[in-house]
Write a structure and sequence with these properties.
- This is Dienelactone hydrolase family protein.
- Keywords: Hydrolase.
- It holds the Pfam family DLH.
- By secondary structure, the chain is an alpha/beta fold.
- Helix content is 34%, strand content 16%.
- It is globular.
- The N and C termini lie far apart (46 Å).
- The N terminus is likely disordered.
Length: 273
């Protein structure tokens, strides 16, 4: 008999509730594994929002045993990415005070919102702590979230804010000096580890930023390599950017598939001790 078509939508299986913190309210979509609550992970969407690919990453994490919370920071939940949609969403996000997309060494309201959401998720799931994954526009927000003691596994994939216009912004960590010092103290005293991913040729998430993060956090900054040297791996084009969602991450043997597996292993290592 022919197989029935899969008609599941990208938001199917996810529960929705508003969450307010730092003066902002966003819809938060949460899903737990079938066996019950698992270690908590806050997944921050990339521009233009909670696309089917972002939800696919969320579903992958749920299948791996994590309880995942995704705040709808921008865009329309479940909507497919198109160039026009991405441009219009980015334009709105760029001028929002919440994100301070161009500001250097900024205390961003969104980082406080994410910290509050991480605390909230930790209260629900228990365990030693929670993870936070940020991607592209939201990548640095995950690192700044590590000021919160409940955040034990921050992951920044292709962090692009502040936008790399000029050398100073390329080297900017994506957080304020206060946040930098608090995270550095946790690295020294608690063994906190921050994980980063980027394609070697990705100018939107500049290598200078990764070098600055290493200079600041030392061995507390762990980079999951993609390719070797300064060239993208085979199968990834010159302008490859989205490590965990669009770049063939579902293809076994592809470097992005292995990178996602390493992120999952990092979350498990830090959140199930």
């Amino acid at each position: 008999m022919p197989t029935a078509p899969d008609t599941a939508g990208p938001l199917d299986g996810w529960s929705e509730a508003p969450f307010t913190a730092a003066g902002y309210t966003h819809r938060v979509f949460t899903r737990s594994p079938e066996h019950g609550e698992g270690p908590g992970v806050v997944l921050l969407p990339e521009i233009p929002g909670m696309t089917p690919q972002v939800m696919g990453l969320g579903n992958h994490l749920v299948a791996e045993g994590f309880t995942v919370a995704i705040p709808s920071l921008f865009g329309e939940p479940g909507r497919d990415m198109t160039p026009g949609y991405a441009v219009s969403t980015l334009a709105k996000a760029c001028i929002a005070r919440e994100f301070a997309a161009f500001a250097r060494r900024a205390d961003r309201p969104v980082a406080e919102y994410v910290r509050a959401l991480a605390r909230h998720l930790h209260e629900r799931t228990g365990g030693p702590g929670v993870g936070v994954i940020g991607m592209c526009f939201s990548g640095g927000f995950a690192l700044a979230a590590a000021v919160e003691p409940a955040v034990l596994a921050p992951v920044a994939s292709q962090p692009s804010v502040p936008f790399p216009l000029g050398g100073a912004r390329k080297r900017d960590l994506g957080m304020s000096d206060r946040e930098r010092d608090a995270v550095a103290a946790r690295v020294r005293t608690e063994g906190l580890c921050l994980v980063g991913l980027r394609f070697p040729q990705d100018g939107v998430a500049p290598g200078d930023r990764f070098a600055a993060l290493h200079a600041t956090f030392g061995d507390g900054w762990r980079v999951i390599p993609l390719g070797s040297g300064d060239r993208n791996p085979p199968g990834a084009g010159r302008f490859a950017h989205n490590v965990l969602t669009y770049e063939d991450v579902e293809q076994p043997g592809h470097p992005t598939n292995e990178a996602r597996a390493q992120v999952t292993a990092f979350l498990r290592e830090r959140l199930t001790r």
